[in-house]
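so my prof wants the structure for this chain in the tokens format not the other one, which i didnt know existed until like an hour ago. anyway here's the sequence
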Amino acid sequence: MRSLLAWLGEALLEPLNHLGGVAMLTLAFLRRVFHRPFERAAFVAELQRIGYESINVVGLLGLFTGMVMVVQTGETMKRWGTEAYVSEGVALVILRELGPVLAAFLVAGRIGSGIAAEIGAMAVSEQIDAMKSLGADPVKKLVVPKVLAGMVCLPLLAALADVIGILGGMVMAMSMLNVPPAFYFSRIQEEVTIGDFMSGFIKTIAFGGIITMVACLYGLRTTGGTVGVGRSATQSVVMSCILILAADLIMTSALVAIFGSGRI
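here's what i got, hopefully its the right format
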């Protein structure tokens, strides 16, 4: 019984410890984000790394998501003779949920793991300690540019995934359901509003901050040499995905309470 209680205690304390670390690092980020000088070169480099280098894979994600949505929903709607109206359902689901969440998962796996590994390698090679001994602030030098770049790039990447996903859905709607492109887009124009887009766009700002903040935390906490670097990269992706889902639930509930069904 004691071993079971000890196991349960460790299982509960570990995620709480990680959440506390994320909160503390977030506070440190907020205290330093407006302090000069701003690390402009590092910020621009992170914009290219997180944003520009992720365009191709996020575009493919959006394309296949839109196509699959039409294949799945179109066959079901055929039973009721409403397949011509597939566009509005696909657009709403992509804009509100699938585009932001799937783009965040992809960036967490591609970029978050890389950031954790990069900072983790610096930690195990004592570069972080050397930086501190020279009077430099690791949070200011490493964390701030990455978090800001994540918060800027992820909304743009998610918007790209949304647009390509809707276009991919149009292609499948034409080929499988014989829906004319003009009618496809007219239904979207009638049913989708700016509130539907903003509900997803707002969430991606938080998702970008979560991914980069968690990756930086695990990188800074890395110990144990090269094995520890790989472990930190893996743990950062897992924790990011969990926090993204939790944040998505909380923010969706709040946005529904504010905007109702999304109509603005």
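also thought this was worth mentioning. The two ends are 56 Å apart (CA to CA).
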